[in-house]
């Protein structure tokens, strides 16, 4: 009874002793409520831990996907640079062929003397 009164906020009040039957009933009630409270609190804690683990797993998956995308963009940038360099190389080859053709045909007109890339 003293424990129940302390929980309810009554301090320092004189409490008359209970008979054995009322004390057993009150103790069983208090024990049942404590059990329910502990089980409910345990469920809340376990659910919180489970949610945190799922959140960490989700963040790790997002981080891995982000890193994979970043790597793919890097590979694509390198491929683009290689293609651009190859395109420039093709342009130089075309200009070289035009210059060779002009050297082989010295009597060509002035309009043919200008490389195709500069037209």
What overall form do the CA principal axes indicate? rod-shaped
Largest sheet: none
- Sketch the topology as an H/E string, one letter per element: HHH
**DSSP strand content:** under 5%
* Residue runs with pLDDT of under 50 for 5 or more positions: 110-114
Overview of this protein structure:
This protein has 119 residues and is an all-alpha fold. It starts with a helix and ends in a 6-residue tail after the last helix. Belongs to the OPA3 family.
Please give a quick description of this structure:
This protein has helices at residues 2-8, 20-104, 110-113. It is mainly alpha-helical.
Topology:
Elements: H1 2-8, H2 20-104, H3 110-113
Looking at this protein, list some descriptive labels.
0% strand; rod-shaped; mainly alpha; 119 residues; 3 helices
């Amino acid at each position: 009874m003293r424990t129940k009164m302390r929980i309810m906020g009554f301090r320092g009040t004189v409490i008359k002793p209970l008979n054995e039957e009322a004390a057993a009933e009150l103790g069983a009630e208090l024990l049942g409520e404590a059990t329910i409270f502990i089980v409910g609190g345990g469920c809340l804690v376990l659910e919180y831990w489970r949610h945190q683990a799922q959140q960490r797993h989700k963040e790790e998956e997002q981080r891995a996907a982000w890193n994979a995308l970043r790597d793919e963009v890097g590979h694509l940038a390198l491929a683009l640079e290689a293609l651009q360099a190859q395109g420039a190389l093709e342009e130089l080859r075309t200009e070289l062929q035009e210059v060779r053709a002009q050297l082989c045909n010295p009597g060509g007109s002035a309009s043919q003397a200008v490389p195709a890339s500069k037209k």
